[in-house]
Specification:
By secondary structure, the protein is mainly alpha-helical. The protein has helices spanning about 1-5, 10-20, 35-50, 65-85, 85-90, 90-95, 105-130, 140-165, 170-185, 195-200, 205-220, 230-250, 255-260. The protein contains 13 helices and no strands.
């Protein structure tokens, strides 16, 4: 798959750009909505929790700076996961072409969502600098956590997209997972206030590692190798999901043309 992406990289990136534009093709502002909607959510959460509910700074960190890194990681995950799950049905006319490598469809959806994520990484740097927090070497490990997020998305998209081709209920299940996951992941709240047993349960969620990692890269200045057990657990779970996802996708691939 990587070889095909590199060989046909121009066509691959063109497909991802077209997919990105197609989402908002029927709206007046077009692709601008892809950036406006997350910005509005960020401002609403800031207003509700910091201004409305008078949320105190988490430690010495303003609430805005505390939740933005974790939020942009979750926003990318949510958008890429939900869109990649329905990619086979959306591009059913392509799936039926035997010469097209169907495995690239989930990757195209993930890359399409990445364009917005890259903008919000830059946005996070701008907000932190506006608060007087200058960039540091710790920010570089955002690239590492981004790789973690991409591998996790690949694993989940292969698994759920192949299952969604056979049943529309899978997309509803994914919606429930994302709704529950947003509140079960420490994005707008800190897990430090929870009992140790609850914290252990929360850490079973792979997105805990990534959202917390984004926050540590921007806020707490902590390297990822300082949590070896959590890092080992994340990669063990993610690689297992990747093996399962690619296996299921490969086994069900011959039947996609019949069910779509």
């Amino acid at each position: 798959m990587l070889k095909q992406i590199i060989t046909h990289r121009k066509s691959f990136f063109e497909l991802s750009r077209n997919d990105f534009k197609a989402k908002y093709a029927n709206s007046l502002l077009g692709a601008v909505w892809a950036f406006v909607i997350p910005l509005v959510i960020i401002l609403v959460l800031w207003f509700v929790f910091e201004r409305g509910l008078r949320a105190l700074p988490v430690g010495d960190v303003p609430f805005m700076l505390f939740y933005i890194p974790a939020f942009i990681a979750w926003n990318f995950f949510s958008e890429a996961f939900s869109s990649s799950c329905g990619c086979l049905r959306e591009y059913s006319y392509v799936v039926k072409k035997m010469k097209f490598e169907v495995r690239l469809l989930p990757v195209i959806k993930i890359l399409s969502a990445f364009y917005v994520h890259f903008f919000f990484i830059l946005f996070a740097f701008a907000v932190f600098m506006a608060y007087g927090w200058m960039p540091s070497l710790y920010n570089l490990q955002v690239a590492y956590y981004l790789i973690c997020l991409l591998v996790l998305l690949l694993a989940l998209s292969f698994l759920f997209s192949s299952l969604a081709a056979f049943s529309g209920d899978v997309n509803n299940i994914v919606s429930v997972i994302l709704q529950v996951g947003f509140w079960a992941t420490p994005i707008i709240w800190s897990s430090d206030s929870m009992p140790p047993k609850v914290q252990m349960i929360l850490k079973l969620n792979p997105m805990y590692y990534i959202c917390n990692g984004y926050r540590e890269s921007f806020v707490y200045k902590t390297w990822f190798w300082e949590s070896p057990a959590l890092t080992a657990y994340f990669w063990a779970v993610t690689l297992f999901l990747l093996l399962v996802g690619t296996y299921v996708f490969k086994r069900l691939r011959p039947q996609f043309s019949d069910v779509l």
